[in-house]
Amino acid sequence: MKIQRKEVPRSARIVVTEELIASARPRFVLELGAGDFSFETMRHALPVVRWTKADFQPPCDVVCDLNRPEFHLPFADASFDMVIMTELIEHLLWPHLLLRETHRVLGAGGHLIVSVPNCVSLSYRLAWLWGHVPSCAAAGNLPAPLGMTAYPVAGGGTIAGHVIDFNWARLKALLVHEKFDPVCVRGSGLYWYRQWLPPWALPARWASNLIVKAVRRTTSA
Fold it and tell me: Residue 78: how many CA atoms within 13 Å on its side-chain side?
């Protein structure tokens, strides 16, 4: 099914994510859901040996449905030392299954970079206060203006809108449950059609997006 990809502006979210990726110095990278925007553009500044992009349709290297109740990534155990999934898991009904597979394909001490819209950001709080549903809140496949997060598809209709809202507490609990230990959480500042506040001006818990670097846990603790 052909979807209409969205243009992704170069906001503070992307800059902060690039900083977290660079800090880990990855060599074997798997980027999931990279159809809208890929961080592969920064590979020339990293010691990357292989960068693989997977999504449910091109453009990508590997096509796989990331939103299934029985899910398996088509890669061997411990194939990568970094997995990147930005603005992805809020679209998935079973994000814990994707994280479980991510844990499998990461090597010991491998890094996960994940970002999500923050459902308790300053802009969300103001919207709720004035009786409005924030435009990025979970809305399933509702078309705009009822829902602003789904993708238009050829022939009409929309798919793959946000189905889960995350704050830091929920995201952290999900990562820990799937055996990832968060080592850094950053905010993206305040973004609403443009960058209103830089990341340093807001605590992460109020920022528009949460960007996390986590480490694959190697024990059952």
Answer: 5
Tokens 């411990």 locate to 78
Q: What is the distance between the alpha carbons of residues 90 and 180, in angstroms, rounded to a whole number? A: 18
- Residue pLDDT, tens place only, 177-197: 999 999 999 999 999 889 999
> Whole-model pTM?
0.94
pLDDT band at 1 (very low <50, low <70, confident <90, very high): low
DSSP code string of the chain: --B-PPP----HHHHHHHHHHHHH--SEEEEES-SS--GGGGGGGTT-SEEEEEESSSSSSEE--S--SS---SS-TT-EEEEEEES-GGG-S-HHHHHHHHHHHEEEEEEEEEEEEBTTSHHHHHHHHTT---TTS--TTPPTTT-SSSEEBTTS-EE------B-HHHHHHHHHHTTEEEEEEEE--EESSSEEE-GGGS-GGGSSEEEEEEEE--S--
pLDDT of residue 220: 56
Count of alpha carbons within 13 angstroms of residue 198, beta-carbon side: 2
Place of tokens 């079973």: 94
Question: Quick check: 212 and 24 in contact, CB under 8 A?
Answer: no
How far is Cα 101 from Cα 78, in angstroms, rounded to an integer? 11
CATH architecture of the domain covering 12-118+162-216: 3-Layer(aba) Sandwich (3.40)
